[in-house]
């Protein structure tokens, strides 16, 4: 068991001669254990832990980019990332460009000499599109840019972006890595030299997790494989069942035969994940009724915990995206997102059926 080192400061042998740690913002034994673990499970040389997923994302943008640089991203992405790009880093001088075509050609078409970073999620949040990591890594490499993959929806158990050509992997460790909805955190994993500026920013900016947060994340990682198998199994069963329900207009799940990214997902993922999105006949009003009638699926922000959650992206995770942009991307007021937990699948199915009727 990794001990929880709660000291905020550490004694030194002589002035400027510390014994490995000097101040907890700069380093802590429990955090070091987590960072070593994060690097190992993602196949990277270095892992860095942050106080949240957005703190990790901020560190990548701030430490590796400069005003005037361009970032390319898929149009379907987490609302918090969009908010950072548009409301924090755009005034700073960073330009973000978004593609509705998430193929190799779609990303390649946006490349300019100023492109320094390609940022992707796969599966995407919330429409669960699948992006070909290896192909987009090739786009980035030819452009002389870095590829960063937000691997939060997949987890390191299901997908290894660095092995597929990514330079950087980012996580909200709050989600599947922590796995119990009791800790908030983030991570950046990549090459040691590449992440030197991110390491500097981690200390200079100070958005680091406390030792107990690191301990809880390490605890969650121990059971990640077992949990992910159950998340995937339950989600696959429910997605297939939902497609047969007359109240359901559309189901978004990479494991369905009808999903256009299924072949890519099968190639680059171990399984298809624990997230489902859906549209109901009846639009926003039908969605609102559904969202207030589930009992096992709790209406809440976040995802990836052992308990099942239901989410309304338009008013929750993606509320920061202007309505016109959000709806143009397919995230309308009728979209529902499910984070399928590890409960008994028959109980979850019964809960969804009751909410649909």
Total strand segments: 14
Kindly provide the name of the CATH class of the largest domain. Answer: Alpha Beta
Question: Low-confidence parts lasting 5 or more residues at pLDDT below 50?
Answer: none
- Order of helical and strand elements: EEHEHEHEHEHEEEHHHEHEHEEHEH
Return Rg in Å. Answer: 20 Å
- Tertiary shape: globular
In oligomeric terms, what are we looking at?
A: single chain
**Largest β-sheet summary:** 7 strands, mixed
Count of helical regions: 12
How many structural domains does the protein architecture include? Answer: 2
* Strand composition percent: 15-25%
- CATH homology superfamily of the largest domain: Type I PLP-dependent aspartate aminotransferase-like (Major domain)
Order of adjacent strands in the largest pleated sheet: 3-9-8-7-6-4-5
Roughly what percent helix? 25-40%
End-to-end Cα distance, whole Å, is 47 Å
Structural class: alpha/beta
Q: Examine the coordinates and then state which fold CATH places here, giving the name of the CATH topology of the largest domain.
A: Aspartate Aminotransferase, domain 2
Which architecture of the largest domain does the CATH hierarchy give at level 2? 3-Layer(aba) Sandwich
Arithmetic mean pLDDT: 97
Cofactor: pyridoxal 5'-phosphate
GO molecular function, one term: cystathionine gamma-lyase activity
Modified residues (N6-(pyridoxal phosphate)lysine): 175
Organism: Fimbriiglobus ruber
